[in-house]
Amino acid sequence: APADFPTRPTTRSTDAYEELLKGRFALDRLDPDGMKEAATRFQHALELDPTFAMAAAYLALAHDALGQWGITPPSVAFEKARRAADVATKLDPTLALAHVVLASIHDVYDWDWQAADNEMKQAMLLAPRESWTQFVAGQLSITKGNYAEALEHENASLTYDPLSPVTFMIISWTQLRLAHWAEAEGAVRRTLEISPTYSSAHYYLGIVLLARGQREAALAEFQKE
């Protein structure tokens, strides 16, 4: 979860704000149970204060994650994410996180890259120095096969959040596609150092090790996953 997006106190409900913070903590675990708990807590925060735009944006982010990780069926997860992001943009059109999530949905679920570009442009205008903005821009660049551009966005993302495990993971994906095996391995191992419960990290480390010809080590990582 993007620790860099400020949770501006735009709610007068301390209970709603506390649920938001607990949801972010759960989402940062980056495992199935944490993502599910996060969605529940963000939903509760929004029920406590239906005008709490940040809660709606994080609810969208949680459902987007549940869909991308395959924890919830995509047709369910991404549509829930879209609805929550739409609520967030209606409540606060200047909330960059909502536009970032919409860009992600258009990219990985709709396969509508023009729409994804449009949302990314809006997010970049609103919050270019936010880690998650740069992260999803990098994700979109990978989709288009622009790996050098992707690395620029990913490195920018790390500038704003140097301990983001998801950013190190997407760097690993990019370096893997560039056949930079050592860099890919280093990045995914950094992901695991920061977030040992990161779902799928051992799998991707296994892929990198397999590419490097280390079959037994790869097998051990797949078994851990």
Report on this structure.
The protein is mostly helical and 225 residues long. It is built from 12 helices and no strands. It has helices at residues 14-27, 32-48, 53-68, 74-91, 96-110, 113-126, 131-143, 147-160, 165-177, 181-194, 201-211, 215-224. Helix 1 runs parallel beside helix 3 (53-68), helix 4 packs antiparallel against helix 5 (96-110) and helix 8 (147-160) packs antiparallel against helix 9. The chain is globular, with a radius of gyration of 17 Å. It starts with 13 loop residues before the first helix and ends with a helix.
What secondary-structure arrangement, pairings included, does this model have?
Elements: H1 14-27, H2 32-48, H3 53-68, H4 74-91, H5 96-110, H6 113-126, H7 131-143, H8 147-160, H9 165-177, H10 181-194, H11 201-211, H12 215-224
Helix pairs in contact: 1-2, 1-3, 2-3, 3-4, 3-5, 4-5, 5-6, 5-7, 6-7, 7-8, 7-9, 8-9, 9-10, 10-11, 11-12
Key terms:
disordered N terminus; mainly alpha; 12 helices; 225 residues
N- and C-termini, Cα separation: 21 Å
The ordered H/E elements are: HHHHHHHHHHHH
Helix content: over 70%
User: What percent of residues are in strands?
Assistant: under 5%
**What is the residue-averaged pLDDT?**
94
* Biggest beta sheet summary: none
Rg computed from alpha carbons, rounded to a whole number of angstroms: 17 Å
Helix-and-strand structural type: mainly alpha
What is the number of strand segments? 0
Poorly predicted ranges: 1-7
Number of helices: 12
User: What form results from the Cα inertia axes?
Assistant: globular
